[in-house]
Amino acid sequence: MTRTPNIRQESDSYAVTAEFYDILQADEDEARVRRLYGREIAEARSGVLDIGAGTGRVTMLALADSWADVHAVEPARAMRTSLLTRLATLPAEQRDRVTVHPHPLDETALHAVADVAVCHNMIGCLPPAVRGRLWSAISRALTPGGSLFVQLPPARLPVRTVVRLLTDKRVGAHVYGGRMTMSAAGYRIRTRADYWVRTADDVLREHTETFWMWPATRARLVGELAPHGFVPLPGRDDSELLAVALRGRR
Questions:
Q1: DSSP state, 228?
Q2: Residue 225: phi, psi to the nearest 5?
Q3: What's residue 250's pLDDT?
Q4: What residues make up the domain containing 147?
Q5: What is residue 248's predicted lDDT score, i.e. its pLDDT?
Q6: What's the CA gap between 233 and 237, in Å, rounded?
Q7: Which helix (H) or strand (E) holds 82?
Q8: Interval 75-106: pLDDT, tens
């Protein structure tokens, strides 16, 4: 009997950004990932859960530095394409340990698959109601006593427009560049990403993509996580990171 495939609408988020993300931000992001989660990922035993895996910085670190199985959750087709292209270059031993999930975590059937979960550079992109569903899904996916590490989103709305230029990178005769512009828009943060490709004499291409972010303080996230069995880990007060552990199940 042939099984009918489960066809769902896929996210086109990051369709523009995926082309530019690694070339413009990979080096800085790789260093940040290692600094924030490197020790815990290396000590993972049952599994590592990479939520919002993007192009795979956390996933690649887990495959290189641990022997645990890895679950990479990435709903956006464009980012997942980059992730799978990267995984295709790995030795079979590493590829055999990673499973890529193309839907949000609350739509997967993951139960007690990991003792370390990471939300890197993604929580700010989720409205509060969606965060609630995510916390519940993470509590199911973690083993008892498992740890969750969340890169903190902006705590509040920006009081003025903030512009961050990305460092130019050359690829052959072309130079890739970009900037991120953040501004308050009601109760959300509007983040506009502008990218360009140029030669020494001319701009060849320009692209723009807009994202929405929801600010949240550390205290608010701790409060949201508490009903799902999470408590803060002592001694982890990094200004960029929230570290919590799963103490029980509801």
A1: G
A2: -80, -25
A3: 39
A4: 17-153+216-246
A5: 58
A6: 9
A7: helix 77-88
A8: 999 999 999 999 999 999 999 999 999 999 99
H helix and E strand count, the chain: 6, 11
pLDDT at residue 7 tops 70: no
**Residue 13: partners with Cβ closer than 8 Å, 6 or more residues away:** 75, 76, 78, 79, 211
- Are 26 and 135 in the same domain? yes
Q: For residue 231, how many C-alpha atoms fall within 13 Å in the half-sphere facing its CB?
A: 7
Specify whether 194 is located in the same domain as 241: no
One-letter amino acid identity for 70?
V
Same domain, residue pair 68 and 113: yes
Look at residue 148 and tell me if it is in a domain. Answer: yes
What rounded mean pLDDT belongs to the chain?
Answer: 93
Q: At what angle do helices 77-88 and 57-65 cross, to 10 degrees?
A: 30
SS3 99: strand
Task: Report whether 76 contacts 62 (CB < 8 A).
Answer: no
Asked whether the beta carbons of 126 and 137 are under 8 A apart, the reply is no
